[in-house]
Amino acid sequence: MNKLRVCFAGTPEFAAAHLNALIAAQAEDASRFELVAVYTQPDRPAGRGKKLSPSPVKRTAMEAGLRILQPSTLRSDEAVAELNALACDVLIVVAYGLILPQSILDTPRLGCVNVHASLLPRWRGAAPIERALLAGDDSTGVTIMQMDAGLDTGAMLEKAAVVIDGRETRVSLEAKLVTVGTKSLVAVMNNLEAFQDSAQVQDDALSTYANKIDKAESLIDWTLPAAKIDLLVRASIGRAPAFALLNGERVRILESSVPNTRASAEVGTVTEVDKSGFSVCCGDGSVLQVSRVQMPGKGEVSVSQLRNGKPDAFAVNTCFDKPTTAEGS
């Protein structure tokens, strides 16, 4: 039996983990597919020197000796012709970051397959991991989906669920999703046509949309209950870190918790400081304990380390600025 010719399209670490799983699986005797090319976004400036840096997917593909393509768009006749020349049976898409026009979707013999980080139809869109955390969901997962012209609306080939723990962060939840996603993707690729034959149509009535978190949304509103702010901190780790304003400067809040205590002070006021961090009064008298921060122009640091060098930092009665819409933009 001829093996499926597979092309892969992805960009960040989440996608690179799935590419790595495919690279390892194709070497097994039972594998029914082979990777022929990898698409990823063009190199981008990164770091203080703004030097061009390859994506995690490109680095993975280079290590494996795979052919790499980096078009700036797929909306051209040249892009369609290039994909067609690869004669791939299926294109796998994982957090690629470029829109696939219908001409691209129609090019592979078996279409395009997407790995989406939610249990569709819940959390269609760009930020499913963050939105699941912010909503307080107790579970989420990965869906392997046949792509169509809609936004994450295609037929579902496979779903795998994970539990969201009480202290889950975006980073820890993404790691769980990588584990189940890579396993599911390899299983689907080794028996793709059977999975396509049993695909399930999504129920649009159950759909929700996962908007990308923007900077304005990452600005902490201390009038909210501490539990809500804590969710924002845990959901925002790595991509759009939650931050507060102190004397007009942004202080990133990177680690927090909600103790079983109350406070009677103006919201946004530091009410207590101890070895583990500082506590801030939030809406309804609840308290957020902050244990890790990043000051402007500095690296991230624990509050205890920061106060060792600056004992007055976040002293009791320190009051964070009241946010405005303009400040969060």
From TrEMBL:
Residue ranges of every copy of the Formyl transferase N-terminal domain listed in the record: 7-188
Substrates-to-products reaction catalysed: L-methionyl-tRNA(fMet) + (6R)-10-formyltetrahydrofolate = N-formyl-L-methionyl-tRNA(fMet) + (6S)-5,6,7,8-tetrahydrofolate + H(+)
GO molecular function: methionyl-tRNA formyltransferase activity
Residue span(s) of domain Formyl transferase C-terminal: 212-310
Pfam annotation, one family: Formyl_trans_N
Enzyme class: transferase
Keywords, ordered alphabetically: Protein biosynthesis, Transferase
Single GO cellular component term: cytosol
Residues that, per the record, bind (6S)-5,6,7,8-tetrahydrofolate: 118-121
EC number(s) stated in the UniProt entry for this protein: 2.1.2.9
CDD domains, alphabetized: FMT_core_Met-tRNA-FMT_N, Met_tRNA_FMT_C
HAMAP family named in the record: Formyl_trans
Family statement drawn from the similarity comment of this UniProt entry: Belongs to the Fmt family.
Protein role: Attaches a formyl group to the free amino group of methionyl-tRNA(fMet). The formyl group appears to play a dual role in the initiator identity of N-formylmethionyl-tRNA by promoting its recognition by IF2 and preventing the misappropriation of this tRNA by the elongation apparatus.
Protein name (database record): Methionyl-tRNA formyltransferase
Organism for this UniProt entry: OM182 bacterium BACL3 MAG-120507-bin80
